[in-house]
Amino acid sequence: YYKFEFVVMCTGKYGDVPRMPVFPPGKGPEVFKGTVMHSLDYCKLSEEETVELMRGRKVVVVGYKKSAIDLANECAQANQVKGGQPCTMLVRTLHWVVPSYSIWGLPFSMFYSTRLSQLFYERPNQGFFRSLLCRLMSPLVYRAGVSKFIESYLSWKLPLGKYGLTPDHPFVEDYASCQMAILPEAFFEMADRGLVRFQRASAGWCFSENGVVLNDGTKVEADLVFLATGFEGKDKLREVLPKPFRDLVVGKSSMMPLYRGTIHPLIPNMAFVGFVESVSNLHTSELRCRWLSGLLEGRFELPSVKAMMGHVAGEADAMRRTTRFYRRHCISTYSIHDSDGMCADLGSATLRKGNWIAELFAPYNNKDYKEQ
Is residue 293's pLDDT more than 90? Predict the structure, then answer.
């Protein structure tokens, strides 16, 4: 074996370990006469292999997030030929989808990536007056303000009502939990042509010999079922970590407790990069790498374990107050505050714009954190 003073885990949350649905005996994939494949295995195929796999076959895609939508779109494209079959998406939980980063002609970043816009959203370990401000502004920001404004555009731009795909929760809850998906071009045009169908499965589903059966008795025939059901990033870590630390991967909030999204307070001499999400995961991970480099160079010291655990608990509380999908470590609605903390630790400026007007109203992006 090899001995190191410090280990950085950059294995990421996605890939390697698929999340598989659990079924009662006699109702799982074993009874299905067709093919069952997780999106993880689908991604390993070449373009020619995917077309050959899906063309002319009755396909069911389980899921309604980015991987599921992309997979259904590719299935529809493969079946734009004589004898092609429609693809059915099995949708259990609805989420808001976005056709582009423009809302009523305005840049999307204007709504969530400026200091002024993030002022009204919950952030970790905020004081009494900020908490009061968030509670007072909640009806304006969440229901009658930004969220409703974006929802009105999406309901106008996309045929969500036509296909029964309008979520019953505010848009901000998907954004705050990093579950907003960008649609492939012309996705709903495929649906209008009958190449993509949507079947709600809110109460659950199981396999049958000839396809899938919803809990309400609805049957959907299939030759091929894709499981776009996500990944078990935490299980991947459990396989790598030594036994004393495996039970520490998940905290009370169901999230991995990471200070600055990088350091587990109870696992010494180890860091984790790529386990915190935002609207720009590459930017978020790059800032954490820079912060971690500063820590290892001795430019600052970590707080006490108690202080770090308190900070992590504050992030979980902020998520819980913002979205029902709080079991994901997502910093989208307080990303600037998060970056400010890392910049302060490094001794860098937290205010990165040239003047106070830009500081309040101009969106923050990766260029603002370019090293001089």
Answer: yes
What's the pLDDT score for residue 318?
87
Q: According to the model, what pLDDT value does residue 44 have?
A: 92
* Interatomic CA distance for residues 238 and 72, integer angstroms: 32
Query: What average pLDDT does the segment 321-331 reach?
Result: 85
- The whole-number average pLDDT for the span 240-246 is 85
Question: Which positions ≥6 away from 162 have C-beta within 8 Å?
Answer: none
Q: Which amino acid is at 39?
A: S
- Domain positions in the chain: 7-14+233-369, 18-99+164-230
Question: Do the domains 18-99+164-230 and 7-14+233-369 match in fold?
Answer: yes
Q: What is the pLDDT of residues 76-118, one digit of tens each?
A: 999 998 888 999 999 999 999 999 989 999 999 999 999 988 8
The token pair that represents 339 in the structure block: 């970056």
Helix and strand numbers (H, E) in the chain are 15, 14
What CA–CA distances, in Å, run from 154 to 23, 49, 71, 199, 339?
35, 34, 22, 20, 30
- Tokens 């302060």 map to which residue? 344
Name the strand (E) or helix (H) holding 133: helix 128-138
DSSP 139: I
Q: Is 320 in a helix, a strand, or coil?
A: helix
Q: How far is CA 1 from CA 236, 240, 246, in A?
A: 21, 14, 20
CATH 3.30.530.20 fits 18-99+164-230, yes or no: no
Is residue 8 classed as helix, strand or coil in its secondary structure?
strand
Q: CB under 8 Å to 197, separation ≥6 — which residues?
A: 86, 87, 88, 89, 191
Helices (H), 199-273: 233-240, 243-246
CB-count exposure of residue 262 (10 Å: 0-12, 13-18, 19+):
buried
Q: Does domain 7-14+233-369 have CATH number 3.50.50.60?
A: yes
Digit-coded pLDDT (tens) for 216-237? 999 999 999 999 998 887 888 8
